[in-house]
Design a protein that fits this description.
Elements lengths: L4 H7 L6 E3 L2 E2 L10 H7 L12 H4 E3 L5 E3 L8 H16 L6 H22 L3 H15 L3 E4 L23 E5 L3 E11 L7 E4 L15 E6 L5 E5 L9 H6 L3 H4 L4 E11 L3 E4 L5 H37 L6 H26 L2 E2 L5 E2 L2 H26 L2 H4 L3 H5 L4 H7 L8 H14 L2 H9 L4 H11 L2 H12 L16 H7 L11
Parallel strand pairs: 1-10, 5-8
Antiparallel strand pairs: 1-2, 3-4, 6-7, 7-11, 8-9, 9-12, 10-11, 13-14
Length: 507
């Protein structure tokens, strides 16, 4: 089934308990601020119906019915590349790809379930696949709830002092299911999602933490779930919001604090419960899948950021100056590097247990780290190229004021032939996009810089690197390396064919 926008909108009228800025929200579709994220989420139910994207987003299930490709497991390199193209297309069309968090959580659940079934004799894979079929048949919008609130970060989950619910956990089990308590934070797409797949955010390595080794799926209107939407970056809406906050108004507030106040989950929706030895597997699998999405999203954001710099250079009449072109060249290199490495994470994907393809962990983390570690430099260059105007650019109400408009039109014009309105809109984009929220969100989204470094260190092929150094330094121990053991030193062969050294030189 491929739902229409109308069907999706109706599904959100489900009686969920959601709060925004201290007020209980009657309907996310009519709330002046929350409806912006619902509109962005609805992109997932628009693009598949467009003829030019139908073959990208729609595939067939086992019964031959049309289903959203995002709800299918990637089994080949082509599937993984297609998955990334779905992400990129959704982002370029102004959406956030509602399914991104959820399908990545589903993929991680698939990986962990296969390992638990193979080693422990569980039947989690059957539950995961039944849930996948449910998603396919109903075209459900899902998010992934990963990040726990953590409490004292110097203590593990079971050692917290104030209470034991800083990490989501099982508090009771019965023949029908489990009771869950805790909270998840920074959960993207929540106001516009129908359901959430909940995963641990870290490895729970000891038996006393088995209650925290928990994976399950739940509708967001389940009894006991409370959704606290984050404060929006702007408190305006309509044309004013899109003028003053062109970036933030289209995507905020997307995140929620999800509180699980003794929520019941039936066993068929439970995909891990107590198998703490495999909490690391599901956490790492999610991180790898989601960093592919993150780097893809960032590739699209780079295009907008770099484009804003190019527009401001043109509108300010500076596009021909060498120092401006040098900055634009660096920005273009930055954007294309993130895009290329992210794409390689899909192309060089690797097979996991159960023939599921997983993004290349090394490339996925390199792409995300490259973007985040250089983000402030990129924003500095965009601000430098733009000049001071984004800091004090007039707002929509100033522009609409008939007494002020003529002065703004006259004195804030720049290059001849460029409408003043265009320059103001581009300036508002720079002001909004390089502000504090986007700097923080893009650094920490899909994992912090420290997490990428950790993944990169453990995934690096240190044996190969050391073999290369040993070979060139003439240190024994490289000969058995699978890469360098087959590399011969041409100097030895060439030296045998050369005349002997003349030792008469005084070196």
């Amino acid at each position: 089934m491929i739902r229409t926008v109308e069907q999706y909108m109706e599904s959100l009228n489900d009686g969920r308990e959601i709060w925004c800025m201290g007020e209980k929200v009657k309907d996310v579709r009519t709330h002046p601020i929350l409806r912006t994220i619902v509109m962005a989420s609805a992109t997932d139910f628009v693009v598949p119906h467009l003829p030019q994207f139908r073959d990208l987003f729609i595939t067939k299930d086992a019964d031959g019915e049309d289903v959203n490709f995002m709800n299918t497991p990637p089994r080949t390199v082509q599937d993984m590349v297609r998955r990334r193209e779905c992400y990129m297309t959704g982002c370029r069309h102004g959406g956030i790809v509602l399914h991104c968090m959820g399908v990545d959580a589903l993929a991680a659940s698939t990986v962990a379930a296969a390992k638990m079934d193979a080693n422990l004799g569980t039947e989690y894979s059957k539950r995961v696949e039944n849930y996948r079929r449910y998603l396919q048949k109903n075209d459900i919008g899902i998010t992934g709830a990963i990040t726990d609130v953590k409490g004292d970060r110097g203590l593990r989950a079971s050692k917290q002092v104030q209470h034991k619910d800083f990490y989501t956990r099982v508090v009771d089990r019965n023949k029908d299911g489990i009771i869950v308590r805790g909270a998840k934070v920074h959960i993207s797409s929540t106001p516009g999602a129908n359901e959430a797949i909940v995963l641990p955010c870290r490895a729970h390595a000891t038996e006393d933490e088995k209650d925290y080794a928990l994976v399950f799926a739940t509708p967001l209107n389940a009894k006991g779930i409370k959704l606290l939407a984050v404060e929006p970056n702007n408190r305006t809406y309509g044309e004013e919001a899109h003028w003053d906050y062109p970036k933030s108004a289209a995507l905020g507030p997307t995140e929620c604090l999800i509180v699980f106040d003794d929520v019941f989950v039936p066993w068929e929706r439970v995909f891990m419960c107590g198998e703490y030895q495999y909490s690391r597997d599901v956490t790492y699998a999610f991180a790898t899948f989601h960093r592919l999405f993150g780097s893809t999203r960032m590739s699209a954001e780079c295009e907008t950021l770099v484009g804003a710099a190019a527009l401001m250079a043109e509108y300010n009449g500076l596009e021909k100056y060498e120092h401006i072109r040098n900055k634009l060249a660096w920005l273009a290199m930055y954007a294309e590097t993130v895009n290329a490495v992210s794409r390689m994470a899909a192309i060089e994907c690797q097979q996991e247990l159960g023939d599921l393809m997983v993004p290349n962990m090394m490339y996925a983390n390199i792409a995300k780290f490259t973007f985040a570690d250089n983000l402030h430099q990129a924003m500095k260059l965009v601000q430098d190229i733009s000049g001071g105007i984004p800091a004090t650019v007039p707002c929509f109400k100033d522009w609409q004021n008939k007494d002020l408009h003529p002065y703004i039109e006259k004195y804030l014009a720049a290059k001849d032939g460029i409408p003043t309105e265009n320059r103001l809109k581009a300036s508002r984009l720079v002001k909004d996009f390089t502000g504090s929220y986007w700097q923080i969100a893009n650094i920490h989204g899909e994992g912090s810089l420290a997490q990428q470094k950790m993944f990169l260190y453990f995934m690096a092929d240190w044996k190969r690197f050391k073999a290369a150094a040993k070979r060139d330094a003439h240190i024994e121990g490289w000969e058995d390396d699978p890469t360098y053991g087959f590399v011969f030193d041409p100097r030895e062969m060439i030296e045998k064919k050369m005349p002997p050294i003349d030792t008469s030189y005084r070196l």
